[in-house]
Amino acid sequence: MRPGLRERLARGPLRRGAGRWPARLPRPHTLRARLTAGLVVLLAVSCAAVGVAAVVELNGFLTGRLDQQLRETGERFPASLEHGGTRPSDHDGGDGDTRRQTVGTFGARLVGDTVTNAAVVGSSTGTGAQNVPLAAADRRTLGAVPADGRGHTIDLSALDDYRVMAVQGRDGDVLVTGLPTEPVEATVHRLELVAAVVFGAALAVAGFAGAMWVRWSLRPLSRVAATATKVSRLPLSSGEVGLWPRAPEADPRSEVGRVADAFNTMLGHVEEALTKRHASEERLRSFAADASHELRTPVASIRGHAELALLHPGPVPQKVARALERIEAEAARMGEMVDDLLLLARLDAGRPLERLPVDLTRLVLDAVTDAQAAGPGHRWTLELSEEPVTVPGDAHRLHQVLANLLANARLHTPVGTTITISLETEETEETEESTAVLKVHDDGPGVAMDVQPRVFERFTHGDRRRTEGVQSGTGTGLGLSIVAAVAEAHGGSVTLESAPASTTFTVRIPAGDG
Q: Which of 48, 153, 240, 308 is found 20 to 30 A from 484 (Cα to Cα)?
């Protein structure tokens, strides 16, 4: 096992992504920003490639020129050091050899691996060649240069970086000639600086121009996005569908133009479908309202005739009397259902309710009193605030909400169930508005999970588990639908939280100014 892996395993399990870049760079989110960033990155990569290629090529070219200069110089200068002289008057021909060399030319003579002489040409106005004190590392570096007649770059601590070339001398020695690489490095560094400034300015200008060009090119797409945002804010769940905005027309030959055209076509199809749905809903509401209104008279007539027959003074057979009683009961139930359907149809049509101050506390007390009389086998408890809770609304409809919730709790729970009714006022910090909160809680068997999502839909009945052991007659299935519709008509809402031994209906009504 590698040494580093053992320590990592000792610290704990390896996590995915460990060792990666610790902080993720922010990524552009919009298409415009991504295109601009991509354009700038591609240009930066191109500029970097051009700059690196130019620097490498220039460095190779200048180094080649330096090698050519070393070949032309040959071994004359290091050969002149064989006699041990470093001044022009020290040996014959020394003056001419030194003066013909470029300032900074380095020469060294090696016998075996030992440097016997080393000098460098001083300034043209100076005294010629000067001895160079070489450190032990410099002597080893010179001894390692192969005598192959090719250029090699070395670093001499006494001088600097040099390009040297070693050849075999006539006396079995090795003659090393070198020229400083400082001019080459200075030229290369200057090119790097110029390239950095020029490419940096080009990137800045190209980035700004590219951003403007991308923004101009994507204007049609931005208009399509703005139109889609407006459409997404329209209420589409119900109600009449108005004329929707359309995306501006663009060149159909472009991708953006095809997207805009397809988007407008889709909006047309959706608008047509919603218009048909609204018309169908209106016809259904009208039918429900008309049918409910028309059924009220015959239902009342049937009930009246049944009651009249039961009041007959003469003897009535028991079976006939029982049949008349059932007719009267079912007629009464049908009359309640017709009234509920008519109320729902009116609420669906958006008919306004009364907006008068209603003492919700008084309504709760009255509704609980009626519920106690109807369900004496249940335990009824009240949790009311000290101050009366008043809301603006329709007193009759709010009383119907309370009556339906209490009847639902009574009819769908067994005898002995505790039903708790609480009423309080909540303050909203954001809007500084108060809301009346009414809760009806029971410790019955609860509402089945599959029934809870549709418990406020029309003609929804409780499951067998919740109705086991309860009183006969479970209602019409419209009670909770009326609760939800009346609450929404008052600008409020109703929710359900149910589990075994804990079911809570919560109604919220804006209190306003009362």
A: 240
